[in-house]
Write a structure and sequence with these properties.
The chain is of the alpha+beta class. The protein is built from eight helices and 13 strands. It folds into two domains: 129 residues, 3-Layer(aba) Sandwich (Aminopeptidase); 133 residues, 3-Layer(aba) Sandwich (Aminopeptidase), CATH 3.40.630.90. The strands form two sheets. It has an eight-stranded mixed beta sheet, with helices on both faces. It has a five-stranded antiparallel beta sheet with strand order 7-8-9-10-13, with helices on both faces. A hairpin with a 2-residue loop joins strand 2 and strand 3.
Amino acid sequence: MSETHYRPARRDELDEITDLYMAAVSDMFRRNNVAIAVPPREGMRQGYAHILDTGIFYVAEADGRLTGISCGIVRGDIWFLSAFWVLPELRLQGIGRPLLHRVWEAGQQAGATTFCVWSSLETTAMAMYMRLGMLPGFQLLRFEGAYKLLPSVPADCVIEPLEPSIAEVFDLQMRGAMRPQDHAHWAASGMQGWQVQRRGRVAGYFYQRNGNLGPAAWAEAGDGDAVLACAFRAAAETSSEIRFFTPGINHAAVRTALDAGLRLMGYSHFLTTAPIGKLEQYLPSGPLLF
C-alpha cells in the first residue's frame, strides 16, 4: 500500500464513508460476539452528513480509496468523538492514530476544553483514548426487546410537542451544552420530540421513533420515573419493542428497562477528560451525537 494521506472529508464521499463504517462495525461485532444488529445504513449516512455540516470530519486515503474515517462534534466546550474506524484488513497498521489526532486538534482549535468518547469494546482504541486523557466514566448499556409490562404514567403528567427553547435548557444542564443543530437534525429525520408537563412545569423531554428512545432528559431526579413512563408509553404506541441506550449511572432508566422486561443486549464505555452535565438523568441519542 502506498503512503497514507489525511485530509478533510468531502460530501461526495458519503457513500464510501458509510460503506467503510458498515464493513468496520460488522467486523468488530463479529470479533467481539456482539449480538445487536448493525445500525441501518441510511440512518448512518444521514448522521455522517449532519456531522460533515456541523462538526469535524477527516479521512485517511491511500491508493485512491478511503482507509479510515474519524469525526467529531463540538457543542459548547465539549468535544465528542462520533466515529473512529479503519478498514478491517488494515487494522493495527498505524493508520488510526494520526487520523484521530487531527480530529482532536481540530476540536481544540474550535474551543473545546472537555473531550469524551463513546468507545466500543476495542481495547486498542480504548488505550489510545486513555493516553489522550479520556478516562473511564461509566458503561453505556443497550436495552431492547418486547416489553412485558409498561410503567404507569402519573396522573399529574401530560405530554406535548417539544419546544426547542425547552430542549436547550435541559441540554445545558444534563448534556453540558446546548445543541439546537442536533434537534433540528432529529426533527428532520422524523423523530418525535415531546416534553412532559408535571404540575405546571416541564419535568423533562424525550424523543422516540418506532420504539427507539433517546435522547431524553429530566431536571429533577424524582422526575425520572415519570418521564420514562411517558416515553415508554409513547414508544409502545408505535412498536411492540422498545430500544434505547442509557448511562450505567442512570439507575432510573436501568430499573425501568428491567421492570418492563427488556433485555440487556450489550454495553460500551464512556470515557472523558472531565465529568459533564448530569448524565445520571439523561438518555443519549446514540453513538454519533450522544
